[in-house]
Amino acid sequence: MGATATREAYLETGLTVLADSGYGSLKLAEVCKRLGVTTGSFYHFFKNWSAYTSQLIEHWYTSRTESEMSAARFVPDPQQRIDGLIEYGLALPHGAESAIRTWSAIDPAVRKVQEDADRARYDVVFDAVLELLDDRVIAHRYASWALYLLTGYEQTTLPKDVDALKWAARHITTDLSREVRRHRREQRAMAVEKSRADESRD
Predict the structure, then answer these.
(1) What pLDDT digit, counting tens, does each position of 86-117 carry?
(2) Which residue, 68, 130, 159, 168, is the most exposed by fewest CB within 10 angstroms?
Protein backbone atom coordinates (compact mmCIF):
# COMPACT_ATOMS: atom_id res chain seq x y z
CA MET A 1 0.00 0.00 0.00
CA GLY A 2 2.35 2.68 -1.24
CA ALA A 3 -0.38 5.10 -2.23
CA THR A 4 -0.38 8.66 -0.93
CA ALA A 5 -3.22 10.99 -0.09
CA THR A 6 -3.73 14.67 0.61
CA ARG A 7 -5.08 16.28 3.74
CA GLU A 8 -8.18 17.25 1.76
CA ALA A 9 -8.65 13.64 0.66
CA TYR A 10 -8.54 12.45 4.28
CA LEU A 11 -11.18 14.98 5.27
CA GLU A 12 -13.48 14.26 2.33
CA THR A 13 -13.11 10.53 2.92
CA GLY A 14 -14.12 11.02 6.54
CA LEU A 15 -17.30 12.74 5.39
CA THR A 16 -17.93 9.87 2.97
CA VAL A 17 -17.57 7.35 5.79
CA LEU A 18 -20.06 9.34 7.86
CA ALA A 19 -22.47 9.50 4.92
CA ASP A 20 -22.21 5.80 4.08
CA SER A 21 -22.00 4.17 7.47
CA GLY A 22 -22.67 6.66 10.27
CA TYR A 23 -20.62 8.04 13.12
CA GLY A 24 -19.86 4.63 14.61
CA SER A 25 -17.86 3.68 11.52
CA LEU A 26 -15.62 6.75 11.56
CA LYS A 27 -12.33 5.07 12.45
CA LEU A 28 -8.73 5.48 11.34
CA ALA A 29 -8.54 2.02 9.77
CA GLU A 30 -11.68 2.64 7.71
CA VAL A 31 -10.50 6.02 6.44
CA CYS A 32 -7.09 4.63 5.47
CA LYS A 33 -8.61 1.56 3.85
CA ARG A 34 -10.85 3.67 1.64
CA LEU A 35 -7.90 5.81 0.60
CA GLY A 36 -5.63 2.81 0.07
CA VAL A 37 -2.92 4.19 2.36
CA THR A 38 -1.12 3.12 5.50
CA THR A 39 -1.74 4.71 8.87
CA GLY A 40 1.76 6.17 8.64
CA SER A 41 0.57 8.41 5.85
CA PHE A 42 -2.23 9.65 8.11
CA TYR A 43 0.25 10.89 10.74
CA HIS A 44 2.04 12.92 8.09
CA PHE A 45 -1.02 15.22 8.05
CA PHE A 46 -2.55 14.85 11.51
CA LYS A 47 -0.94 14.74 14.92
CA ASN A 48 -3.46 12.24 16.25
CA TRP A 49 -7.04 11.05 15.80
CA SER A 50 -8.42 13.88 17.92
CA ALA A 51 -6.71 16.44 15.70
CA TYR A 52 -8.20 14.74 12.65
CA THR A 53 -11.76 14.70 13.97
CA SER A 54 -11.48 18.35 15.01
CA GLN A 55 -10.29 19.31 11.54
CA LEU A 56 -12.93 17.09 9.96
CA ILE A 57 -15.83 18.84 11.64
CA GLU A 58 -14.33 22.25 10.85
CA HIS A 59 -13.89 21.16 7.23
CA TRP A 60 -17.53 20.10 7.11
CA TYR A 61 -18.62 23.47 8.46
CA THR A 62 -16.37 25.49 6.16
CA SER A 63 -17.09 23.55 2.97
CA ARG A 64 -20.74 22.59 3.48
CA THR A 65 -22.07 25.65 5.30
CA GLU A 66 -19.83 28.70 5.59
CA SER A 67 -18.75 28.91 1.95
CA GLU A 68 -22.26 28.20 0.65
CA MET A 69 -23.94 30.74 2.94
CA SER A 70 -21.35 33.39 2.06
CA ALA A 71 -21.91 32.79 -1.66
CA ALA A 72 -25.68 32.99 -1.21
CA ARG A 73 -25.44 36.43 0.35
CA PHE A 74 -23.89 37.76 -2.87
CA VAL A 75 -27.04 36.87 -4.85
CA PRO A 76 -28.81 40.25 -5.06
CA ASP A 77 -32.35 38.99 -5.66
CA PRO A 78 -33.77 37.49 -2.43
CA GLN A 79 -36.15 35.15 -4.28
CA GLN A 80 -33.30 33.76 -6.39
CA ARG A 81 -31.25 33.48 -3.20
CA ILE A 82 -33.94 31.34 -1.59
CA ASP A 83 -34.29 29.17 -4.70
CA GLY A 84 -30.52 28.59 -4.62
CA LEU A 85 -30.62 27.77 -0.92
CA ILE A 86 -33.35 25.19 -1.53
CA GLU A 87 -31.18 23.53 -4.19
CA TYR A 88 -28.22 23.64 -1.80
CA GLY A 89 -30.28 21.97 0.92
CA LEU A 90 -31.48 19.22 -1.40
CA ALA A 91 -27.91 18.48 -2.51
CA LEU A 92 -26.42 18.16 0.98
CA PRO A 93 -24.88 14.79 1.92
CA HIS A 94 -27.77 13.97 4.23
CA GLY A 95 -26.20 10.78 5.55
CA ALA A 96 -23.15 12.71 6.74
CA GLU A 97 -25.36 15.47 8.14
CA SER A 98 -27.33 12.92 10.14
CA ALA A 99 -24.16 11.27 11.43
CA ILE A 100 -22.76 14.62 12.53
CA ARG A 101 -25.94 15.34 14.49
CA THR A 102 -25.50 12.00 16.24
CA TRP A 103 -21.88 12.89 16.93
CA SER A 104 -22.87 16.31 18.25
CA ALA A 105 -25.06 14.67 20.88
CA ILE A 106 -21.98 13.17 22.59
CA ASP A 107 -19.24 15.69 21.81
CA PRO A 108 -19.67 19.31 23.03
CA ALA A 109 -17.12 20.66 20.53
CA VAL A 110 -19.00 19.09 17.62
CA ARG A 111 -22.28 20.36 19.03
CA LYS A 112 -20.91 23.91 19.00
CA VAL A 113 -20.02 23.59 15.31
CA GLN A 114 -23.43 22.06 14.58
CA GLU A 115 -25.13 24.96 16.34
CA ASP A 116 -23.06 27.42 14.28
CA ALA A 117 -24.10 25.63 11.08
CA ASP A 118 -27.78 25.64 12.04
CA ARG A 119 -27.63 29.33 12.93
CA ALA A 120 -25.84 30.27 9.70
CA ARG A 121 -28.38 28.37 7.59
CA TYR A 122 -31.29 29.86 9.51
CA ASP A 123 -29.91 33.40 9.28
CA VAL A 124 -29.43 33.43 5.52
CA VAL A 125 -33.01 32.25 4.90
CA PHE A 126 -34.35 34.66 7.52
CA ASP A 127 -32.58 37.62 5.91
CA ALA A 128 -33.81 36.73 2.41
CA VAL A 129 -37.44 36.39 3.52
CA LEU A 130 -37.17 39.59 5.53
CA GLU A 131 -36.08 41.42 2.36
CA LEU A 132 -39.13 40.07 0.55
CA LEU A 133 -41.78 40.60 3.21
CA ASP A 134 -40.37 43.04 5.78
CA ASP A 135 -41.88 40.98 8.60
CA ARG A 136 -39.58 39.43 11.19
CA VAL A 137 -42.22 37.00 12.50
CA ILE A 138 -42.91 35.57 9.06
CA ALA A 139 -39.20 35.50 8.23
CA HIS A 140 -38.60 33.48 11.40
CA ARG A 141 -41.34 31.03 10.47
CA TYR A 142 -39.98 30.38 6.98
CA ALA A 143 -36.38 30.07 8.17
CA SER A 144 -37.49 27.64 10.88
CA TRP A 145 -39.62 25.68 8.39
CA ALA A 146 -36.62 25.22 6.07
CA LEU A 147 -34.36 24.08 8.91
CA TYR A 148 -36.99 21.76 10.40
CA LEU A 149 -37.47 20.15 6.99
CA LEU A 150 -33.79 19.35 6.61
CA THR A 151 -33.16 18.13 10.12
CA GLY A 152 -36.35 16.07 10.16
CA TYR A 153 -35.42 14.39 6.89
CA GLU A 154 -31.94 13.62 8.15
CA GLN A 155 -33.08 12.20 11.48
CA THR A 156 -36.06 10.11 10.46
CA THR A 157 -35.77 6.33 10.60
CA LEU A 158 -38.09 6.00 7.60
CA PRO A 159 -36.53 5.09 4.24
CA LYS A 160 -35.02 8.17 2.61
CA ASP A 161 -37.21 9.52 -0.20
CA VAL A 162 -35.46 12.31 -2.08
CA ASP A 163 -38.51 12.95 -4.27
CA ALA A 164 -40.65 13.52 -1.19
CA LEU A 165 -38.00 15.91 0.17
CA LYS A 166 -38.01 17.84 -3.12
CA TRP A 167 -41.81 18.00 -3.04
CA ALA A 168 -41.80 19.36 0.50
CA ALA A 169 -39.07 21.89 -0.31
CA ARG A 170 -40.98 23.17 -3.30
CA HIS A 171 -43.99 23.74 -1.09
CA ILE A 172 -41.90 26.19 0.91
CA THR A 173 -41.08 28.22 -2.19
CA THR A 174 -44.66 27.97 -3.52
CA ASP A 175 -46.10 29.17 -0.22
CA LEU A 176 -43.52 31.94 0.01
CA SER A 177 -44.31 33.13 -3.54
CA ARG A 178 -48.00 33.30 -2.61
CA GLU A 179 -47.12 35.29 0.52
CA VAL A 180 -44.98 37.70 -1.52
CA ARG A 181 -47.81 38.29 -4.00
CA ARG A 182 -50.22 38.98 -1.13
CA HIS A 183 -47.71 41.36 0.46
CA ARG A 184 -47.26 43.27 -2.80
CA ARG A 185 -51.00 43.60 -3.27
CA GLU A 186 -51.28 45.03 0.21
CA GLN A 187 -48.41 47.43 -0.45
CA ARG A 188 -50.05 48.65 -3.66
CA ALA A 189 -53.39 49.08 -1.90
CA MET A 190 -51.72 51.06 0.87
CA ALA A 191 -49.95 53.24 -1.70
CA VAL A 192 -53.25 53.95 -3.49
CA GLU A 193 -54.95 54.76 -0.19
CA LYS A 194 -52.12 57.09 0.79
CA SER A 195 -52.27 58.81 -2.59
CA ARG A 196 -56.01 59.35 -2.22
CA ALA A 197 -55.56 60.69 1.29
CA ASP A 198 -52.88 63.11 0.05
CA GLU A 199 -55.13 64.28 -2.78
CA SER A 200 -58.06 64.87 -0.41
CA ARG A 201 -55.86 67.05 1.79
CA ASP A 202 -54.85 69.09 -1.21
Answers:
(1) 999 999 999 999 999 999 999 999 999 999 99
(2) 159
